[in-house]
Write a structure and sequence with these properties.
Chain lengths: 116, 115
């Protein structure tokens, strides 16, 4: 069964450093998402991406964040200068097409980011 | 904010059916009810979804009331591996100027399956 994959599974970084989290969405999916979950809190939407541009972003997704689809398979989330409060699980998700309520969103296993 | 209300926690005996309720009284006609679960801090796992008819798959059954204001997820024979947080999410069509399909998670129901 096709699945969303994410690398690395864990990342430890120093405050102020740049990190890139990688995702490989399901191959025939066209619409991609990033979510995050701070320990003990709810899963929160960050950004959605379609046709090589951001479709929607939350207020969490500020100028320190960027997303990119550098090639035909990877989808990345970059945090330019990490802060302590960026420590969280980051989940990538994808759907086959966008904006249709019946289209299921599938999630990857997540990357646990720890900022020291 | 999430458009659904779920009890914060439930217990279920192993081998018995787990019935997880969800209220979504403000659901609109084109919105689907989705269920996901999250085991420890793993990625949310899709379980099932429905619009107005009851649905069943290999994991669970979804019962939606006729007025669509509430639903119940049924795990017919719960096992210890079903211990997780279960999320009921309402999701609709893309609305210009509004949500474009991203999921809004609430706190969910923490289901504990006990031997």
């Amino acid at each position: 069964e096709p699945e969303v994959t994410q690398t690395p599974s864990h990342q430890v970084t120093q405050m102020g450093q740049e990190v890139i989290l990688r995702c490989v969405p399901i191959s025939n999916h066209l619409y991609f998402y990033w979510y995050r979950q701070i320990l003990g809190q709810k899963v929160e939407f960050l950004v959605s991406f379609y046709n090589n541009e951001i479709s929607e972003k939350s207020e969490i997704f500020d100028d320190q964040f960027s997303v990119e689809r550098p090639d035909g398979s990877n989808f990345t989330l970059k945090i330019r200068s990490t802060k302590l409060e960026d420590s969280a699980m980051y989940f990538c998700a994808s759907t086959r097409i966008r904006g249709v309520g019946s289209e299921t969103q599938y999630f990857g296993p997540g990357t646990r980011l720890l900022v020291l | 904010d999430a458009k659904t209300t779920q009890p914060p926690s439930m217990d279920c005996a192993e081998g018995r059916a787990a019935n997880l309720p969800c209220n979504h009284s403000t659901i609109s006609g084109n919105e689907y009810v989705y269920w996901y679960r999250q085991i420890h801090s793993q990625g949310p796992q899709y379980i099932i979804h429905g619009l107005k008819n009851n649905e069943t798959n290999e994991m669970a059954s979804l019962i939606i009331t006729e007025d669509r204001k509430s639903s119940t997820l049924i795990l017919p024979h719960a096992t210890l591996r079903d211990t997780a947080v279960y999320y009921c999410i309402v999701r609709g069509y893309m609305n210009y100027g509004g949500s474009q399909g991203n999921l809004i998670f609430g706190k969910g129901t923490k289901l504990s399956v006990k031997p």
